[in-house]
């Protein structure tokens, strides 16, 4: 298991399963009438989880090994995939800023945070490396 995110709207805990390339959804309430836990296959090495803004929240899954962000409905239907540009492919986490932008934490030659376009995954804004201690960890 890698990432956790709880949603008060769907009343589920979502868990990313790095080793098995899956996303698990577990009901938060402990009620006999509750639905069962569910799991579905996602892209390679899912890690960070977050939710879309506005309306019914979908689950955003940062897929480290695949270099993409996948958006899933609470019922396990793939809504869309955003393939990241080469320099941002080793993604750890993604958060939706607006309907057209996401902020992404990734590693590579430098561990940094970037803002990407949700249309094509291209980098719109680049930050400086997170800290000098992280740079040394990745050989930069």
Describe the structure.
The chain has about 140 residues and is mostly beta strands. It has a single domain (about 5-135), classed as Neuraminidase, CATH 2.120.10.30. It contains 1 helix and 12 strands; from the N terminus they run ββββββββββββα. Strand 1 and strand 2 form a beta hairpin. The radius of gyration is 16 Å and the shape is globular. The chain starts with a strand and ends with a helix. Residues about 135-140 have low confidence and may be disordered.
CATH topology: the name is Neuraminidase
First-to-last CA distance: 28 Å
Q: Strand fraction band?
A: over 45%
Shape: globular
Number of domains: 1
Task: Provide a concise account of the structure shown.
The chain is mostly beta strands and 140 residues long.
What distinguishing features does this structure have?
140 residues, mainly beta, Neuraminidase, four-stranded antiparallel sheet, 12 strands, globular, disordered C terminus
